[in-house]
Write a structure and sequence with these properties.
It comes from Microctonus aethiopoides. Keywords: Leucine-rich repeat, Repeat, Signal. This is LRRCT domain-containing protein. This protein has 486 residues and is of the alpha/beta class. It has a domain of 117 residues: Leucine-rich repeat, LRR (right-handed beta-alpha superhelix) (Alpha-Beta Horseshoe). The strands form five sheets. The chain has a 16-stranded mixed β-sheet, with no helix packed on it. A hairpin with a 2-residue loop joins strand 1 and strand 2.
């Protein structure tokens, strides 16, 4: 009995503690006039404070009003579109802030002590679209719980040694659209062998891959270096990035993909190379990517042929984008050896005139095929027979198609399409020209009966009226010859 009484007493005390703690953590906004022009609302995990189109003095007054409340937890503090060239020291002293945004506020200086007081609780810091010319390392060094740091769209010119030292828990670092042209080999010291998973260096002025600085980031998963001025890549550039599964090199000035350049990236699943000036892909370019690469984007380059020899080793490739190149000819074996896993194939905006009879024979998993805006005049039914049952989307618009019986497959396929994309396909304007009248018809509505096509479906097909007429003449001749013999 005594034991039960003790248990109930402990439970009662526990309930009291929980209730008291809960009461202490219930959040309330200050009176609106005390923080104006800032606004406050209560969210599930704390207060949401927004200060816009104001200046330092008003923001400081609002922070003072918030400090006057005990146990205040600010889940979101958003300072946007303000005149705030300097973040003063200790401005947040006495506050608990988990997500801090200072966006588009002309911020150029972050004093060393401005963030240290919230270092134990801050998990996300967004300083994007400001006027920072360097990484405010001394202000960041004590942010030991920070997970995301966003420095996009500033004016940072270089990453100095140990720029991010102290950020032990950082997982995502965004430096997109700065003016970075120099990265010290020790720039990321303090992030290596830690938790950094994603690094965005896109939209800067890099002319080569900063190999020395990157080589120690062995847990990095995604590296983005799009929209720089990188002119070449070579074997060894990505050595050390053994965990990388996504690499973005789009919209640089790369002219060729040399042998073994990605050989250290054995875990890579996605590779983006579109928007470069690539004319040549070495047959051994993708060594090391055999077992994991699934997404390859080579669009908007200057390829004159599908780099089949290089692609054949990619056994798990699902998404192949070759749009907007100068591909003119497709060999019949263009997809042999690797095509059976491809579900998405984009060949739009090339110069393809003819599709070989067996070009799609190995594409057993194909679901989306884009042939838009090429030079195709004919797409015979035999070419699509092997993929017609798996296709959910096919785009043949903006080609100089001639209306013939060869195109009847498209209208039958469209009518039978049960995929969710059928509305999109139905609205897509795909036309052909009827000769000799030079009249345009929607491909799904070409006058098959008037054209006289009798086919496998029992409607009308490839041979058309001409075949039927020829057959009748042959029968008539046979009858006449037989009668003459008799």
């Amino acid at each position: 009995m005594l034991n039960y009484m003790k248990i109930w007493r402990y439970l009662f005390l526990l309930c009291v503690i929980v209730v008291v703690t809960f009461a202490q953590t219930i959040q309330h906004c200050p009176q609106p006039e005390n923080i104006r022009p800032c606004t406050c609302s209560v969210k599930k995990f704390g207060l949401d404070i927004i200060c816009e189109f104001t200046d330092h003095s008003h923001i400081s007054s609002a922070m003072t009003a918030l400090k006057a409340q005990q146990n205040t937890i600010i889940f979101y503090l958003k300072l946007r579109h303000n005149n705030l060239p300097k973040l003063q020291g200790f401005i947040f002293l006495g506050l608990v802030v988990q997500h801090l945004t200072i966006h588009n506020s002309s911020l150029a200086t972050v004093e060393e002590s401005s963030l240290s007081s919230i270092g134990k609780g801050l998990t996300q810091l967004d300083l994007s679209q400001n006027s920072l010319t360097y990484v405010p390392s001394s202000a960041l060094v004590n942010l030991h719980t920070l997970i995301i740091l966003n420095l996009n769209r500033n004016k940072i010119k270089e990453l100095r040694s140990r720029s991010f030292a102290g950020l032990d828990t950082l997982e995502i670092l965004n430096l997109y659209e700065n003016k970075i042209s120099i990265i010290d080999p020790d720039a990321f010291i303090g992030l290596d062998d830690r938790k950094l998973r994603r690094l965005n260096l896109g939209g800067n002025l890099l002319t080569s891959v900063p190999t020395s600085a990157l080589s120690s980031l062995d847990v990095l998963k995604k590296l983005e270096m799009q929209e720089n001025k990188i002119t070449s890549i070579q074997e060894g550039d990505f050595e050390g990035l053994k965990s990388l599964d996504s690499l973005v090199l789009a919209h640089n000035q790369i002219r060729e993909v040399p042998a073994r350049v990605f050989s250290h990236l054995t875990q890579l699943m996605s590779l983006e190379l579109e928007g470069n000036q690539i004319t040549h892909v070495d047959p051994d370019a993708f060594i090391g990517l055999e077992e994991n690469l699934q997404y390859l984007r080579l669009g908007e380059n200057n390829l004159h042929a599908i780099p089949s020899d290089a692609l054949r080793r990619l056994h798990r490739l699902r998404h192949l984008d070759l749009r907007s190149n100068n591909i003119t000819v497709l060999p019949e074996d263009a997809f042999n050896g690797y095509g059976d896993s491809i579900s998405f194939l984009n060949l739009q905006k090339n110069l393809i005139k003819v599709l070989p009879a067996m070009i799609f024979d190995n594409l057993n998993s194909l679901q989306t095929l884009n042939l838009q805006n090429n030079k195709l005049m004919h797409i015979p039914e035999e070419i699509t027979e092997t993929v017609i049952d798996t296709l959910g989307v096919i785009d043949i618009s903006d080609n100089p198609l001639i209306c013939t019986c060869d195109l009847r497959w498209f209208s039958y396929w469209l009518k039978n399409l049960k995929d969710k994309d059928d509305d999109i396909m139905s609205k897509k304007k795909t036309v052909c020209v009827m000769l000799p009248e030079n009249r345009e018809y929607p491909v799904q509505n070409i006058p098959l009966e008037r054209m006289g096509c009798v086919g496998k479906t029992g409607r009308i097909s490839a041979a058309g009226i001409t075949s039927s007429f020829s057959f009748d003449i042959i029968k008539l001749i046979l009858i006449i010859v037989t009668a003459a013999v008799l």
